[in-house]
Amino acid sequence: MKCDKEVMEPLRFHSKKDAWVTGLLWALILLMFAECGFIIVLSTTARIPLPFLVLLVSVPLFFGVLIMSILFSTWYDIRNDQLTVHMGLFHFRLPLERIARVAATRSVFVPSWGFALSFDRLHVWFRKKNGKVAWLPIAISPENQAEFMRELARAVPNLRLEE
After folding, report:
1. Residues 92, 95, 99, CA angle at the centre, nearest 5°?
2. Interior/surface letters 3-18, b for 16+ CB within 10 angstroms, e for the rest
3. What is the topology classification, in CATH, of domain 75-162?
């Protein structure tokens, strides 16, 4: 059986991470795990009911693991028919034909869906199902922006790229 469309291996671009963002995320991770440890130590001296203790430990543990997943699992894949933005436990799939334009920016004052771990980012505007361009772009920060934009332009004909 023959396919009409050539299957392209996904091109993965890992996220660029600003040093201060990495430091902040590590501080939050350590804070969450320290809070878990503190609650466990406190429970040896104070009588805390078990269901309440499980809740007190599981909430910061969940957020610590969530932040750790964001720190280590943020990347962007370009495939045959879609751009996949992956950030920790969250991901967003965008059909390539719906991408309207891509612009480089360092501004933090432009509202966007934040999937970027750096201020050196790209804003990806896309068309909604009704054909109108979404007013809120997706913010991404691939390590190699030039290569990412070149591959995206190759995958999306007539893409508007703005430097």
Report:
1. 95
2. eeeeeeeebebebbbe
3. PH-domain like (2.30.29)
